Amino acid sequence: MKNTDEFHWEALDEVDEYAILLLDKEGHVKRWNKGAEKMKGYRLEEVLEKSFSMFYTVEDQTAGIPESLLKEATDKGKALHEGWRVGKNNRAFWTSEVITALHDDHTGVTGFIKISRPHEGRLAQERFRLVVESAPNAMVLVNREGKINLVNGQTEKLFGYTREELIDHPVELLLPEQFKYHHPQWRDKFMDAPKTRTMGAGRDLFARRKNGTEFPVEIGLNPMETPEGPMVLAAIIDITERKRAEERFRLVVESAPNAIVLINQEGRIALVNGATEKLFGYARPELLGKEVELLIPSRFRNMHPHYRATFFAMPQMRPMGVGRDLYALRKDGSEFPVEIGLNPIESQEGNLVLASIIDITERKILEANRLKSDFLANMSHELRTPLNAILGFSELLIDQKIGPLNTRQRQYLQDVHDSGSHLLQLINNVLDLAKIESGKTELSVELFSLNEVITGVINTLESIAAKKEVTIRLELSKALSYVRIDKNKFRQILYNLLSNAIKFNRERGEVQISAMPHADDMFMVRVTDTGIGITKENLKKLFIPFVQLDSGMARQHEGSGLGLALTKNIVELHRGQIGVESESGRGTTFWIIMPLHIILT
């Protein structure tokens, strides 16, 4: 074992057949001799304190070769290795090297001495040939004139040519016709400024086999200095399967029903599908390559890069923004609530994230309606309790069970009772509507006579019709007799439709009720009046809770705007349909189609 102080750098500095480097224990260059400067092409000040790994190829660096050599030297005292090294301007050369660990008696390893010897002539050429031949990819060595100097077995296998058919022939032999004309210009441009890089970055590259078939390729270019002059070593990979997989992936993404956005680690959009264009209002070219924050409301944009970095640090399939309300931004500036699923994807371009985006506007509306219905149901219960007390005590007073009343007192109490009854009916309607909308209403099915129920509702409303001298006519098909549905709710449907027909009729008008069989075990009821009718604009507002349409006859008719909404919900609860036909000033017909019998499940 030798200490660093024992080396006489004055003598070693003059040795130019060997490159001698003194490294610290982390592998940083502390000193080197003239032989190292000659071999690497750098001056000492250009590499001082830099890692010795800079002299290894990108492939060796990725594989961790420099670090493994230091570890081996630390564990065993020295490490031997030979291979390609890279000097200034990416000049490649083949060397043999030995790395020896330096120690002292107190702290253990203090650094390393690295001695390299270049291989020249036939030995270097043979070793280079063996390395190229053993490469898993097609390797083609091309000189400055574009002639093929060397190929390996993988090249023969990939292109279908023998070595003899390729050596000393123009490399354009391996190119499709459409690229042959411009290739010499691209080759000369590379040779004028050679550096290790991927060929045709940003473009789709294709090669051509001996049989004329073309296929997509990925090509890495490595410049080399040889005794015959500068050359370029091209590593060629057939990416047909990768392209097929990418196309399959693209088709799956395109056919997805949800908006799909593929994002790289820099936060730029790499891929979108048609559903994304439709949801956000952007055309595909307006999104590709743009920052994903384009689709995020401004108030959330500042924090999003942080969230994205956190995801890529620990990528896993999960919903985005758990516990938070998420919103997206359309091209027109409108915002909408979304649900986003994140899926990490590994690709040749690095890690990506696939975001599946669902517009949950309708879900939010339904949730808000459910909360509203729950609130209305609770409030209706709270209001109904004191109101029942008011009605009960007013009835006791009207019946003079507590004491005698004069005419005026009796009239006032009757007004209180009538108003309370009207309010109770309104509260009951609100409660019924809330129950149906929240899914808490169940049907109570029974067999009953259709004629009996319809006649009963007509009798109930006859006194109201008489005040306006409205005539009610019933036309019941003999083919209809009994039905098996919810009797009370059917009565409620008829009451709402018939009372509206009377309320909005003209003086001495007419209401026609007809019931008849309908297709597929259904029956139809039609209620037609000769009243004021409904405008086309107002037809769109029908069945909306709390909306009244009689603004033209402002406040002449009492009502809450709940009757038709409740009627529609009850009909649909029976798996039926409701509709309306009307023309302003010429009367209205409401119709319902209901099943003859309901089977509860």
TrEMBL record:
It comes from the Bacteria. Residues 201-251, 322-372 form the PAC domain. It is an enzyme of class 2 (transferase). One of its GO terms (cellular component) is plasma membrane. It catalyses: ATP + protein L-histidine = ADP + protein N-phospho-L-histidine. Its EC number is 2.7.13.3. Keywords: Kinase, Phosphoprotein, Transferase. SMART domains: HATPase_c, HisKA, PAC, PAS. GO terms for molecular function: histidine phosphotransfer kinase activity; phosphorelay sensor kinase activity. PROSITE patterns: HIS_KIN, PAC, PAS. Residues 20-77, 124-177, 245-298 form the PAS domain. CDD domains: HATPase_EvgS-ArcB-TorS-like, HisKA, PAS. Pfam families: HATPase_c, HisKA, PAS_9. InterPro entries: HATPase_C_sf, HATPase_dom, His_kinase_dom, HisK_dim/P_dom, HisK_dim/P_sf, PAC, PAS, PAS-assoc_C. Residues 378-598 form the Histidine kinase domain. NCBIfam families: sensory_box (TIGR00229). This is histidine kinase. The lineage of its organism: Bacteria, Pseudomonadati, Bacteroidota, Cytophagia, Cytophagales.
